[in-house]
Amino acid sequence: MHSNIHALLSLACFALVFNALYVSGIGSQPRSLSLSCGSENGGTDGDGRKWESDVKYIAGNYPHARAQYQDSSIVSEVPYMDARIFISEVTYNLPIMLKTRYWLRLYFYPSEYSGLNITNSYFSVVAGGVTLLNNFSASITAQALTQAYLIKEYSLAPMNHQILNVTFKPADRPDAFAFINAIELVPMTDLFGSGTMVGFSDQNFDAVSANLETMYRLNVAGQYISPTKDSGNLTRTWYNDAPYLFGAATGVNLQTNESFKVQYGELTESVAPPDKDHKTLTIVGTAGGVGFFFVAAACIAAYRRKKIIPGFDSHTSSWLPVYGNSHTAISASEAIVKRLQNQMTLWKSSLRLSIQKGDEDNIAGNSSATRDQLRP
């Protein structure tokens, strides 16, 4: 009798321990968040992705609004048509794993909302103590890009706590408010280490603890790739590179066969660009001629920094952020500088950006729009 009771107790204890370990194992897996801000019940977007409401991630009852107009470029109401509105500082508390790098994506649709003037919306966004946006106007930025909506993506360095605070703070001006349509938080493999700076063999750059912003993600010679077709469930968006090519010799685009294998070095398959059905490449002629004009945005920002910060006297490698494996990087930098100083007319679809000599400061004056001036 006693032995039977002892056996049952042992079995029960084993079951409890196993259950605790099982639950702990589930909780230890990094989880992605897709929040439709301002929506009561969330929803499913046009790609079949599910979005949950943001209600349980903010303390308090904050107003929400519904966009009065759906732009033709928005194929799905979720997650763009609903927005959370903030007239004072508000913080989202998002669960994260210790020492895990995350992608944070912020969605903005600066449309008409009842009772609000979208041109009054200026605000800052701080995540984990890092300022991502400052005095930001989604309306101005979207107009500069001739886009209806914006997606800002950041790679946040691993943290030593399990809550990521994302704070929205309206600017100190009359009738200012902050808004957000959607938030994504996706765990990612920590790809970044340290490397030697091009042109400065005695200087290293450590990106392990760096917080980075995604500027461009291009599928060279290939088509647009939606988040649902990305590798590793990372839900990244890949854009076609055609709008960023300029010059007569743009190279020859090829579609490879099944036997062609892309080598990504130490990148795992779950992080590398999607491979199936998207093996494309560009062959460049001996005269070169393939150029990506988004470097102009970086040049303008760096030129602005050069004028503000003393000591940046060189006209090339000391301030111009052009990096690559090519031995022509420095001479290319020199050519870009000269071209910017005279006149450069760049086309991006219907967007025409003219930079006249002496106008660099005017273009770079709005810091919130400068880095995104040529984002797809």
Automatic annotation (TrEMBL):
Domain of life, source organism: Eukaryota
Keyword RNA-binding: no
Topology of the protein relative to the lipid bilayer: Single-pass type I membrane protein
Subcellular location as annotated: Membrane
Keyword Nucleotide-binding annotated: yes
A molecular-function term among this protein's GO annotations: protein serine/threonine kinase activity
InterPro entries in the record: ANXUR1/2-like (IPR045272), Malectin-like_Carb-bd_dom (IPR024788)
Annotated TM spans: 281-303
Residue span(s) of domain Malectin-like: 35-261
Key words of the record: ATP-binding, Glycoprotein, Kinase, Membrane, Nucleotide-binding, Serine/threonine-protein kinase, Signal, Transferase, Transmembrane, Transmembrane helix
Gene Ontology cellular component terms for the protein in this record: membrane
First and last residue of the signal peptide: 1-20
Predominant cellular place of this UniProt entry's protein: membrane
Listed name of the protein: Kinase family protein
Organism listed in the record: Populus alba
